[in-house]
């Protein structure tokens, strides 16, 4: 039995990164996936940086160098690295509001044999990934 399926995805100008990826996973009939790869460009960047209380908000052209993470039925956890016009690299947790500039090419691994969810973890104080058989 196959435990995963690959789903290539191309996002278009103006698409919001996180909701578009989540929608593609749910439209496939699955509630569990990992983002294996992602490249493209953004014109609006919203990141939560390590340990920061506020979001980094930048409206400028960025190249998406990498994207990875997990999509669960009740939320996603995505990390991204991007470079700006000067070649400076930024990275962090993808917050709502990241917008595709020209394209985003994403490869998803769908996990039909699994259920992913985010549940409170007393050790970290955050909702963390829980993996269960479907």
Automatic annotation (TrEMBL):
<feature type="domain" description="PPC">
    <location>
        <begin position="1"/>
        <end position="132"/>
    </location>
</feature>
<dbReference type="GO" id="GO:0003677">
    <property type="term" value="F:DNA binding"/>
</dbReference>
<keyword id="KW-0238">DNA-binding</keyword>
<protein>
    <submittedName>
        <fullName>DNA-binding protein</fullName>
    </submittedName>
</protein>
<dbReference type="InterPro" id="IPR005175">
    <property type="entry name" value="PPC_dom"/>
</dbReference>
<dbReference type="Pfam" id="PF03479">
    <property type="entry name" value="PCC"/>
</dbReference>
């Amino acid at each position: 039995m196959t435990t995963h399926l690959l789903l290539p995805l191309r996002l278009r100008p103006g698409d919001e990164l996180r909701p578009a990826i989540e929608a593609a996973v749910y439209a496939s009939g699955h509630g569990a996936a990992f983002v294996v790869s992602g490249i493209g460009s953004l014109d609006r960047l919203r990141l939560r940086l390590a340990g920061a209380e506020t979001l980094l908000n930048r409206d400028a052209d960025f190249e998406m160098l990498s994207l990875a993470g997990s999509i669960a039925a009740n939320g996603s956890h995505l990390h991204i690295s991007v470079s700006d016009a000067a070649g400076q690299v930024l990275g962090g947790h993808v917050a709502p509001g990241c917008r595709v500039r020209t394209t985003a090419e994403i490869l998803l691994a769908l996990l039909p044999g699994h259920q992913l969810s985010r549940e409170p973890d007393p050790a970290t104080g955050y909702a963390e990934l829980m993996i269960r058989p479907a």
